[in-house]
Design a protein that fits this description.
The chain is mainly alpha-helical. Helices cover 68% and strands 2% of the residues. This is Solute carrier family 41 member.
Length: 514
């Protein structure tokens, strides 16, 4: 018997055909097929070749080819007959250090943006329009929440599209830009109008007082602010995502915090300036306010037509309203809490901290939701049964302490809360912002509220994104509006509770009631 086993010939259709292993089909430099002439018989006729299952030699080739073709593709299984979904791609295989390093700078930038917004709110709360039309305070969380309803959702959609290769060609890039910009203009105009209605209702219910002039002022200020802020921030987001892809940075880690860093400041500055200008024109030129409303609403059909012509945004145009509107209503409840708290002179110091605690919580949970959504998109499409979305209600241990990449990022984001807020509080104190002196007991209560807020939000994000995925809903379009709105409500509520407790226990050193 020969020491090297002979290959048995293959019988097919009455002809005996040679059998050739897979490793003889490729040349030593990998991936190059042998010449077709090698398969010709001696008489020049073609012969059938049966390829043996030498998968081990070809596995490396398949892995490399898959990664080169699309970053979202995964390595093929050893068993080619098994129909399994692809595993997550390399962009999400990050260490805790790399996640923290990529998130840290945008997180600090976003935090300083919220600090600036808090300083602005601390100043403008004494303007006439905020004193005599206090419903403007109700608009603040709702319009600042537009960064979660619109800009962060836009950033999450575009980050996912970039990570799975849907923005690689100029044609695809232009289609995504035009469709998404038109879409957020439609959403901004509608949400701004509805936010003004909510502000009028929430302002009327406690006092029973209604002014048509103030209602039109709120409508004009809200719609104009939402439209202009979304236009500016949308353009910035597109530039950030394109730039981060070219620099080899995961857009999920940087896009949403940068949206928030400028979002709060730009939106609050626009709201304050526009409402103050329109308030001054209220008596002498009463027609200005309704004219502003009519102008922005008249532009709606143009944006709707553009968004409908784009397949990437058509579905969101029809089905993406529920989270945006519900999130606006949730944020407006937070605005009502802010209005009732800040209107009390004992708690005027709360104004400067509200955008900070709400902004930080919203930024961190938006990063986590965007990362989880991208992770799921790389494994299939919404509604698919997948190993990456197995749970309906995760336990806190699986959310924060498992070896999963999303659990790792949740730990990193949670650990950023305390050092981040300490930097922001020190900045506010150095700039002599607010009406509150930083004492140890105040910092303890503030940090407790901030940690509890982020802990709740990260857990809800883990459950919500997977739940929406299992219900055939795209988390990029649905999860972030809910999460940032909940961040506004939870953050404002916990901060107001902390200020009330500090006032009740008599922490006079912190000058809470100053």
């Amino acid at each position: 018997m020969s020491s090297k086993p002979e290959q048995e010939p293959h019988q097919a259709n009455g002809a005996v055909l040679p059998i050739m292993p897979m490793d003889r089909l490729t040349s030593p430099d990998r991936g190059q097929l042998v010449e077709p002439s090698d398969f010709l018989g001696s008489d020049g006729g073609g012969v059938e070749v049966v390829v043996l299952d030498s998968r081990a030699n070809a596995k490396g080739v398949r892995e490399e080819d898959a990664l080169l073709e699309n970053g979202s593709q995964s390595n093929e299984s050893d068993d080619t007959s098994t129909d399994r979904g692809p595993e997550p791609a390399s962009p999400l295989k990050e260490t805790s250090f790399s996640i923290g390093l990529q998130v840290l700078f945008p997180f600090l930038l976003a935090g300083f943006g919220t600090v600036a917004a808090g300083m602005v709110l601390d100043i403008v709360q004494h303007w006439d329009v905020f004193k005599y039309v206090t419903e403007v305070f109700i608009l603040v969380p709702a319009l600042l929440g537009l960064k979660g309803n619109l800009e962060m959702t836009l950033a999450s959609r575009l980050s996912t599209a970039a990570n799975i290769g849907q923005m690689d060609t100029p044609k695809e890039l232009w289609r995504m830009i035009t469709g998404n910009m038109a879409l957020i203009q439609v959403q901004a105009t509608v949400v701004g109008f509805l936010a003004s209605i909510a502000a009028v209702i929430f302002g009327w219910i406690p006092d029973g007082h209604f002014s048509i002039d103030h209602a039109v002022l709120l409508c004009a200020s809200s719609v104009a602010t939402a439209f202009i802020a979304s236009l500016v921030l949308g353009m910035i987001m597109i530039g950030v995502i394109i730039g981060s892809r070219k620099m080899g940075i995961n857009p999920d880690n940087v896009a949403t915090p940068i949206a928030a860093s400028l979002g709060d400041l730009i939106t609050l500055a626009l709201l304050s300036g526009i409402s103050c200008g329109l308030y001054k024109e209220l008596e002498s030129k009463a027609y200005v306010n309704p004219l502003v409303c009519a102008f922005f609403i008249a532009l709606l059909p143009i944006w709707i037509i553009i968004a409908k012509r784009n397949a990437a945004t058509r579905e969101v145009l029809y089905s993406g309203w529920e989270p945006v509107i519900i999130a606006m209503a949730i944020s407006s409840v937070g605005g009502l809490i802010l209005d009732r708290t800040v209107s009390d002179p004992n708690f005027a110091g709360m104004a400067v901290f509200t955008p900070v605690i709400n902004g930080v919580g919203g930024n961190l949970v938006a990063v986590q939701a965007s990362r989880i959504s991208t992770y799921l998109h790389m494994s299939g499409i919404p509604g698919e049964s997948s190993e990456t979305a197995p749970r309906k209600c995760p336990s806190p241990c699986s959310t924060f302490f498992s070896s999963d990449v999303n659990s790792r990022s949740a730990r990193v984001l949670f650990l950023l809360v305390v050092p981040g807020h300490l930097v922001f509080l020190y900045t506010i104190n150095s700039m002599q912002g607010g009406h509150t002196t930083l004492t140890l007991i105040f910092i303890v209560f503030y940090m407790t509220a901030a940690l509890l807020q982020v802990l709740i939000l990260l857990y809800i994000a883990d459950w919500m994104v997977h739940w929406m995925w299992s219900r055939d809903l795209d988390p990029d379009n649905f999860s972030i509006p809910y999460l940032t709105a909940l961040g506004d409500l939870i953050g404002t509520g916990l901060l107001a509770l902390s200020f009330h407790i500090l006032w009740l226990i008599g922490d006079r050193d912190s000058d809470v009631g100053d």
